[in-house]
Write a structure and sequence with these properties.
CATH class: Alpha Beta
Structural class: alpha/beta
CATH superfamily: Alpha/Beta hydrolase fold, catalytic domain
CATH topology: Rossmann fold
Radius of gyration: 18 Å
């Protein structure tokens, strides 16, 4: 089978919702959870060639990609989606699971690990959010990080747009969509044709309503989750991008420290989608962790 051509399969989750996943490559399965929040898994591609040695199981979260829209929209909330991951593990017949979670699904993976600590063999969280454990960089810290890229275009324009977006949040409003779009170069290590095409697909691939519900009220109980993560027996890698501001590498280290076997690493010149910035390094680093736990 060509590793560039995914095979689509479906399963029925706990509430009768039919969910889809896409298989790439051959080898030990690696269940991959996309971010967004609630963006179809297509944007992950083959994760920089990681499918050369692994069978990637790319889950379309409910209401995204080829997965069905649930009858109850409240199940878009992250804590409800934990049961989808467990249903997928059972469907695949795996006693334990290797997980890779990107961005917003870092919080979903933290909830899954807290609920099923004995089921996680190895967990790689790539530029993850830390909402589930109550960790977040301050707006001032994020601004200081992005301002390191000042001194030329498109970054000066992107930084100004990001400043306006944060100001809108601080005032209790919502940022202008044009500002979010203008700030997108800050999410990538290089703002080249590949990054521009990748960013342009985000609005098409994301379920906006589901995204708004994902981290809604009641989704997270940080003290309980932090306590439960201390019982996770598997190895955990938190991979930050050196240029990423969500999370900054320092915050990634704090997340890793919550796990008994947590390690942190930072990809040089990597942004929020580090497999696009240096695919060989990214794939080799994740594969080394999956093979050795280090």
């Amino acid at each position: 089978m060509s590793i560039s051509t995914p095979r689509t399969r479906t399963f029925t989750s706990y509430d009768g919702t039919e969910l889809a996943y896409h298989l790439r490559g051959e080898g030990e399965p690696l269940v991959c959870l996309p971010g967004g929040a609630m963006r179809a898994s297509a944007y992950l591609g083959d994760l920089g060639g990681l499918s050369a040695g692994r069978r990637l199981v790319l889950l379309d979260l409910r209401g995204t990609g080829d997965s069905a829209i649930p009858a109850d929209p409240s199940t878009y909330r992250a804590d409800h989606q934990v049961a989808d991951i467990e249903a997928l593990r059972l469907h695949l017949g795996l006693p334990t699971v290797d997980l890779l979670a990107h961005s917003a699904s870092g919080s979903l993976a933290q909830l899954y690990a807290a609920a099923h600590p004995q089921r996680v063999r190895r967990l790689a969280m790539v530029t993850p959010t830390c909402w589930a454990v109550g960790l977040e960089d301050s707006p001032e810290d994020r601004l200081a990080e992005v301002r390191r890229r000042a001194g030329g275009e498109p970054y000066d324009t992107a930084i100004a747009a990001y400043e306006r977006a944060l100001a809108a949040f601080a005032a209790g409003g919502s940022p202008d969509e044009a500002d979010w779009a203008a700030a997108m170069p800050l999410a990538y290590g290089r703002w080249d044709d590949t990054a521009r095409a990748h960013a342009a697909l985000s609005p098409v691939q994301k379920n906006a309503g589901a995204s708004a519900a994902f981290a809604g009220p009641g989704a997270f109980d940080p003290p309980a989750t932090r306590a439960a993560l201390s019982r996770v027996t598997g190895e955990v890698l938190v991979l930050a991008g050196e240029l990423d501001f969500n999370p900054r590498p320092a915050l990634a280290a704090r997340l890793a420290a919550l796990f008994p076997k947590g390690v942190v690493d930072s990809q040089k010149d990597g942004g929020h989608f580090p497999w696009l910035d240096d695919a060989p390094w990214f794939a080799a680093r994740i594969e080394r962790f999956l093979a050795t736990g280090a």
